[in-house]
Amino acid sequence: MDSSSLLRQLLTAGCLLAFATPVIAQSGEQADMVQVPREQLNEIQAELKYLRARDEQREAAQEAIVQKISTGGTWIANECSWGENVDCGSIGCGSMCGGSGCCGNCGNGGCGCGGLFDCYSCCCPTPEAPCVECPRVSTLNPYFNVSVFGTLTADMVFNGRRPVAPGTPYFLAPGPVLGRDQSTFDLHARQSSLGAAFVGPQWNGWQTGGQVLGVFYNSNVLADQYGFLPMLAFGEMKNDRWRFAAGLQFDVFNPGAPTVLPFSALCASGNSGNAFRGQLRAERYFNPSSDVQWTLQTALSNPVPTTIDPTFGISEDNGWPNVEGRIALALGTPGATAVRPFEVGFSGVVGQLRTTPITADPQVVSDVWGVGTDIRWRVNDTFGFVGEFYSGQGLGTYNGAILQTVNRETFESIRSTGGFLEGYVYLTPCVHSHMGYGIDDPRNNDVSLDPANLARVRNETYYANLLWDVNKTLRLGFELTYRETEYAALPGNQGTGYHGQFRWSF
Q1: Which residues are within 8 A (CB) of 420 and not within 5 positions of it... i.e. 6 or more apart?
Q2: DSSP string, 93-121
Q3: Which end of the chain is more exposed for a tag (fewer CB within 10 A), N or C?
Q4: Residues 320, 116: Cα–Cα separation, whole Å
Q5: pLDDT, tens digit, for every residue of 105-128?
Q6: Is residue 481 within 8 Å of residue 463, measured between CB atoms?
Q7: Is 77 helix (H, G, I), strand (E, B) or coil?
Q8: Where does the UniProt annotation place the signal sequence (predicted)?
Q9: Which DSSP letter does residue 452 get?
Q10: What is the mean pLDDT of residues 392-418?
Q11: How far apart are the C-alpha atoms of 6 and 145, rounded to whole Å?
Q12: What is the mean pLDDT of the chain?
C-alpha cells in the first residue's frame, strides 16, 4: 500500500473517531470506554503528521533532482539541459568552442561547444538513479551516514617483453635467452575497487568521518593474483584549520601521481611515495587569502608494509616508527574538485630498518631517509604539468629504488634517485591525453652482484595515453609504453607495452 492510500484511510478513520467521541461521551457510558478512542485518535494524528512531513520531504527531494538534471552545463563547471542550444560565448567555452553552438545535440545524447566531435557527452547531465528508501545502507550506530562507491575495471595488457608482473607492470624481467619468446598478454579485473565513505556527527566544531577502500589484488601485488587488498581504512576528525586521522593511509612523503592506466602507477620508475601503511597523521591549514593555502602535514607511520613485494619482509622495524613530513603551497581559486590550479610541496621521511641474517652474523641496522618535491600546475583549462623528484636511501617500501630497500648480501640500505614528469592536454572536454617519462636510478655500488638476487640498477618508462570520458560513469582508455630495465649481473631488457581499459565508476 502506498503512502497516499494509507493517508486517505487514516484521514477517514480520524474523522469517524472524532465524530464518535462526543456520542460515546453523551451516552453515559463509563469513562474507560471513552479513554481508548482518544488514545487511538492521538496516535492517528501523530501518524498523519509524520506522513505529511515525509511527503513534503519527498516532493522537495524530487524537485531538487529535477532542477539539477535540467540545469544547463558547459565544459567544466556547468551543465546544459537536454535539447537546449546556448551561445558558446555567453557561457565561456572560449577557444574550445566550435561553430555549432553549445548543447545543440543534447537531445541526441551529446552536448558541448562543438569542435572535434561536435558533442561532449561527458558534459551532459546524467539522469540520477531514483531515491530508494529501502533497502539502504544501515549501520548499528545511528549517527553515521555511509556512501558506497567504487569502480568496475577491465584491463587488457600486451607486452613485447615480460614485465614484472604481466598484468601490473613495474619493470621488465631480465633479457631473453636467444630463441625464447617473452611476449605476454593479460586480461583481468583486479584493479576494480570497492569503498565506503563515512560521515559522522559533529563534535565541538569537528566533523568526524572516515573511509575504507580496497582493490581485488592479494597482498603480494607482484604475484598478479586475485584477492582483496585494503588500501585505505582510517577515521578522521577535521575542521577548516586542522585534520587528524588514524589508520591505513597513503604516504605523506611525495604524494603526487601521474595519470596512467596500470595499478603500478609508475612506481619503481620515478613515482616514489603512494604506498599505503598504518599511520597517525596531523594536518594544519593556513589561508592568508582566499586564493592562497599553506599546508603542513606530519605523520608517524609503519616502517615495513608487506604489500606490493613480499621481499620487503626480510627486514623489520627497529623499534620505532618512520616520521614523515610535508609542507605545501597552493595558489589559485579551488576548482570543481576543490583542487587549486598550482601546488608545490616539499616532503621528507626518516626511519630505520633492522635485518637479522640466517647465519650467526650480527644484525644490521640501516637508516631510511628521503627528500622529495612534488608539483602540480594547471596552466589553463586545457593544458598542465605534474611532476615529482626524490632522493634518499632505503626507500623500497616507498616505491623507490625499483622496489629495493636493502642489499640482499650486506643488508645495508640502497641509495637511489628518481622522479617523473608528465604533461597533459584536453583535446575536448571529454578527451584528454597524458604523456610523460619516469626513472628510478639506484646506486650501482649499493646493490647485490649475485645474479640470484635480480638486483636492478636502472628502470625507465616512457608513456602516452588517450582517455575518453564517455559520460560521468564510463571511461575508455588506451596507453602505449616503452620500458627499459638494467640489471647489475644479468642482461637488461627493453620493450613496448599496450594497455586498453574499460572503467565504470559508481
Answers
A1: 258, 266, 269, 270, 271, 387, 388, 436, 437, 438, 439
A2: -GGG--TT-BTTTGGGT--SS-SSSS--G
A3: N
A4: 57
A5: 443 444 444 444 444 556 665 666
A6: yes
A7: coil
A8: 1-25
A9: G
A10: 95
A11: 29
A12: 82
